[in-house]
Design brief:
The chain is an alpha+beta fold and 96 residues long. It has helices at 12-16, 19-31, 56-64, 67-70, and strands spanning 2-8, 35-40, 46-51, 74-80. The chain has one domain: Dimeric alpha+beta barrel (Alpha-Beta Plaits), CATH 3.30.70. The longest helix has 13 residues, at 19-31. Belongs to the YciI family. This is YCII-related protein.
Length: 96
């Protein structure tokens, strides 16, 4: 599992110009089972994505097509995360 932290490097106006494509990219990755959660930071300076892909190489390939990455609107920090304990509702993450 991976945590992707996005930090915007452009204006919110530039970010908003790509929101529709951003949402389409997220929807595709959710439908493929690659992403399990995402959301914006508060204040709105970026966001987070939880990804359950097999490798960092696979995730980097997915992110390379992401509009905020492609258009250099944000910097991305990818951290591998290995869940070892969860609530019962999230126990499926232990197998991810």
């Amino acid at each position: 599992m991976f945590i992707v932290s996005l930090n915007y490097t452009s204006t919110i106006e530039e970010i908003d110009m790509h929101i529709t494509e951003h949402l389409m990219h997220l929807d595709k990755q959710y439908s493929l089972g690659n992403f399990i959660a995402s959301g914006r930071k508060e204040p709105r300076t970026g966001g987070f994505i939880l990804a359950t892909v097999e490798s960092k190489v696979e995730l980097e390939s997915i992110l390379s097509n992401y509009p905020f990455y492609r258009e250099k609107l944000a910097e991305f920090v990818v951290t591998e995360f290995i869940p070892t304990k969860t609530s019962p509702e999230l126990s499926f993450l232990l197998d991810a």
